[in-house]
Write a structure and sequence with these properties.
mainly alpha
């Protein structure tokens, strides 16, 4: 039985928050692998459709195939439910709760409308900043990169400010808009610390994916015996497996950040109440 793991008993440093994410990840990996694997497959349904139908892969802005978009939206919704169920299971395990088998998936399904609204609002708040970049698509790659870099500043600020809204929505029962508002309240005063946490975690995951890609190709080549198509297929399968193994770390990181922010805000609120009473 896991004890004193979640929520954290006190505010955490950057290193301690990342360490908590790894501890949650290690404690829940085996129980989350099925959710993670299915979520990764669901998120790639539209790409698989393109490959199977021998259609060219193009950017989303240039995609006009209605079947692609149906599979893309369906896959996103399924992945959204599965990732949310995975976070709920991780929370149950590390907080010492014992929910009924499959209850996390049922909870995520029941809350899908609000969950979808939350992600739509989050996406609009962050990606709307990149709309002006469309006017520079034909202005040269260097100009486009510079424009995107500038537009990334407000998008990153908004993204981190609302980054706690997902666990807030799942764990507190708040609605989509209320979860975004509460996330902003929690993140206030901790934005730069969260930026460091997410940056370090992202660099670690990028390193993992780089190594995983090399491992996938190295494992596929001798099995395929020179067949390029078989090599690509085996490498893709191995990459999906490795991605599924790393996926629970994402939800573990969000849980760790939310736990730390909650402790910090509750401590601040307690201090204010004591001061007011005095």
């Amino acid at each position: 039985m896991l004890t004193n793991l979640y929520p954290p008993p006190r505010p955490l440093s950057v290193g301690e928050t990342i360490d908590l994410a790894f501890r949650i990840f290690r404690a829940t990996l085996l129980t989350c692998l099925l959710f993670a694997g299915l979520a990764v497959i669901a998120s790639e349904l539209s790409t698989l459709y393109k490959l199977v139908s021998h259609r060219a892969l193009v950017s989303l802005l240039d995609e006009r195939d209605p079947k692609f978009w149906l599979l893309y939206i369906f896959g996103l919704l399924v992945a959204m439910v599965l990732y949310s169920a995975m976070m709920l299971r991780q929370y149950a395990v590390v907080s010492g709760r014992t929910p009924a088998s499959g209850s996390e998936l049922g909870t995520a399904l029941r809350r899908l409308p609000g969950l979808a609204l939350l992600w739509v609002l989050y996406a609009l708040a962050t990606f709307i900043w990149f709309v002006p970049a469309e006017a520079f698509r034909s202005s040269g790659i260097l100009t486009l990169i510079l424009v995107v870099a500038v537009l990334s500043i407000p998008a990153t600020w908004i993204g981190i400010t609302f980054s706690a809204s997902w666990p807030v929505f799942l764990l507190t029962g708040r609605g989509a808009l209320a979860s975004l508002v509460h996330s902003r309240r929690l993140v206030t005063g901790s934005w730069w610390r969260l930026a460091v946490i997410y940056t370090v975690a992202l660099l670690m995951l990028l390193a993992f994916y780089a190594v995983a890609g090399v491992v996938a190709v190295a494992a596929a080549v001798p099995i395929a015996r020179g067949d390029v198509v078989v090599t690509a297929a085996l490498a893709s399968i191995i990459a999906v497996i490795l991605t599924a193994v790393s996926a629970p770390f994402f939800t573990a990181l969000f849980l760790a950040v939310y736990g730390d922010l909650s402790v910090r805000r509750e401590g601040a609120d307690l201090a204010q109440r004591i001061a007011a009473a005095g």
